[in-house]
Amino acid sequence: MIIAWTIVDPILEKEKKHIHKLTVRDREENMAIAVASRQLFIDGEWKAPILNKRIPIINPSNENIIGDIPAATKEDVDLAVDAAKRAISRNKGRDWCTASGSVRAGYLRAIAAKVTEKKNELGKLESIDCGKPLDEALGDMGGVIGCFEYYAGLAEGLDTKQKAPISLPMNTFKSYVLKEPIGVVALITPWNYPLSMAARKIAPALAAGCAAILKPSELASVTCLELGEICREVGLPPGVLNIVTGLGHEAGASLASHPDVDMISFTGSSATGSKIMTAAAQLIKPVFLELGGKSPILVFEDVDLDKVAEWTIYGCFYTNGQICSATSRLIVHESIAVEFVNRLVKWAKNIKISDPLEEGCRLGPIVSEAQYKKVLNFISTAKSEGATILTGGRRPENLKKGYFVEPTIITDVTTSMQIWREEVFGPVLSVKTFSTEEEAIDLANDTHYGLGSAVMSNDLERCERLSKVLKSGIVWINCAQTGFVRAPWGGIKRSGFGRELGEWGLDNYLSVKQVTRYISDEQWGWYQSPSKMS
């Protein structure tokens, strides 16, 4: 799934203004940052993996090995889960899970402050690790800061919400609700928003009083490991957050099937999500899943063509096109289709494709060689099935190394084609036309996925009408890919279930307990009392 997202938040506006005013000196300083050699972060300490295996880190913009990360196996996962169990039981829970929400909020704010302090360094590391343009990566760091600060506030609010009374029809009883941390949670995150996705799971989990084990993608773990160092620096109690990097079939599978994990939150592919759901079902444990998508963007004939062209490009090509919510299916009214698509081609050709650290970069490389080949294969298959590659579809001529793919627009697409039905996870936009609103709705909803949808029209009544009938967890009106830390994020159908962000994100990690007390002095009276029997 899991962002796929751009956090927009008033508290981040100052950060946002700074992000787009990076000086040459800032970039030169960033260029000099090296990747630290980290171990697994378990029980508040750096620990080498038991089997001493490591995975190389490949910079996708130049294919150079720039470091390595530890490769955890089942034995390491067991240690991390044990550390999390100790964290929530230490001092009978008073050190963390039953501590005041204000105590946990203090740690979350301290983490936010440290991320702020290290923002430029973390942004650079994110760029060279996963290929994200530096301006985007720095924007993500602002989102991380906002996420920890927001959930610090919700952690404080938990104290005032405890023992919320329930109105009952009988005055002989009083009832209230307790919200308690669900326990030890497994957080498994993807590579397209490494630290952002981690933050949107870690922050609410810790705010709730859970102890967590984070398993980031092996393709982009660097900033998540740096978060371990930040937690060590702020004095987060040992075992509250553990970070185990490694391969999905080793570390991820062991974590998802661990009997002492009480809940799993996963963002990633639908195929892996299905496996995690199967593993969780064996022990009847709750899961949150934010999975793949094939989101539509509907463009009606009454729009400002250039304004909507930019949103269309942004909705599909942001984060190098590697977004689960990417609006990669353009459904445009036939009366404006030719002119609109021509403008899209001009916008696409104007995107700066470069090393993500270069100033003004708006499209970096695909994350890995395997994903790069997969994207090119999608494009090749579309062409062989009869579609037209209107622009892009290949490596930029000036970039001889790195996993770069030009922004690609494909027309003459049918609804049965692979390019229309399957998630590409690359900078590829497919186009179809419609003549009536009903046809547009049918095309939009004809998918196994249901994460996002976008409607572009100056007719607000139409937009409101479509927002009710489009089958997705998110509907954007006259925009695309925007997200707020206060607003829910998640999908339906094969895009998963449950919601992250906002109060909904906190609820994922809380268990609701009913407490009811009989307050009458009278005997209950259901059974005949033995003392009254003759």
Automatic annotation (TrEMBL):
Native source organism of the sequence: Medicago truncatula
Protein known as: aminobutyraldehyde dehydrogenase
Entry similarity comment: Belongs to the aldehyde dehydrogenase family.
Active site, renumbered: E290
Associated pathway: Amine and polyamine biosynthesis; betaine biosynthesis via choline pathway; betaine from betaine aldehyde: step 1/1
Keyword annotations: NAD, Nucleotide-binding, Oxidoreductase, Sodium
One Pfam family hit: Aldedh
Gene3D superfamilies assigned: Aldehyde Dehydrogenase, Chain A, domain 1, Aldehyde Dehydrogenase, Chain A, domain 2
Reaction catalysed by this enzyme: 3-aminopropanal + NAD(+) + H2O = beta-alanine + NADH + 2 H(+); 4-aminobutanal + NAD(+) + H2O = 4-aminobutanoate + NADH + 2 H(+)
GO molecular function, one term: protein homodimerization activity
